[in-house]
Design brief:
2 domains, 3-stranded parallel β-sheet, 8 helices, 8 strands
Length: 292
Amino acid sequence: MEVTDHALTHGGKFHADDVFSAALLKIIHPSVRVTRAFEVPENYDGIVFDIGRGKFDHHQRNAEVRENGIPYAAFGLLWRELGETVLRGDCPPEEAAKEAKRFDEHFIQPLDADDNTGCGSQLADAVGAFNPVWDSDRSPDDCFAEAVEFAEGILRRKLAGIFSVQRAKALVERALAGAQDRIVVLPRFAPWKAVLVPSDALFVVYPSRRGGYNAQVIPADFGTSEAKCAFPEEWAGKEDAGLRETAGIPTLNFCHKGRFLISAETLDGAVQACRAAFRKAEARKKTESENV
């Protein structure tokens, strides 16, 4: 669907539904002019949403409902039509479809549900607070414009987050392809769990913002803190000279008491720590199997 340079929504009190719809249209077509009215002019040729009982309205009888039972509001209807197009510029087509669906589930559906049922939403309440109070002389249209600017800022940041996840995925996949000893070394920190948790990698190493390098264990699965291979129990909570003496690695600085993270002054030290942790874990497994 092509976004024209003019669009129409309802006048009067506004809600997150129509405000975020307008923000989405402005992101796609920055020069779009969204006007507000109580009726759709005859032969209007722009996009009409949240009014008029058309494709992007949801007030008519038998309005559309998602498979999970959450009714569509105008924002959800517009996103269903335009979401993949918005994301496709920075995501491969198959990823754009997945991310569009995920965004609908986690961000849009709560707003649509609130608009249709009044179930409550802090974000919807925040947008609604832009409406002029009962005894204000301010123009509702001016307040609507301010609310749209607010929503556009949120929406742009949410979309930027989606694009950043895709960039992280590509970076981590490249690092995984070059991993040795099941240790993935990243050139810089990037969100890595989506790629590395399902892989056979055990550790991930990356430059620390405090200087030096961090190494983290990779969880055995999503939603658990259990590591595929934890750092040794005797390292837990130790730092500096005490840790170096225990581990036998001269550049180690710190091991978290939860045994999921270490820091080292050098990349080589961080990688050595991962290899040592793996060797100790394998030795322990061997001893336990021999004692069975």
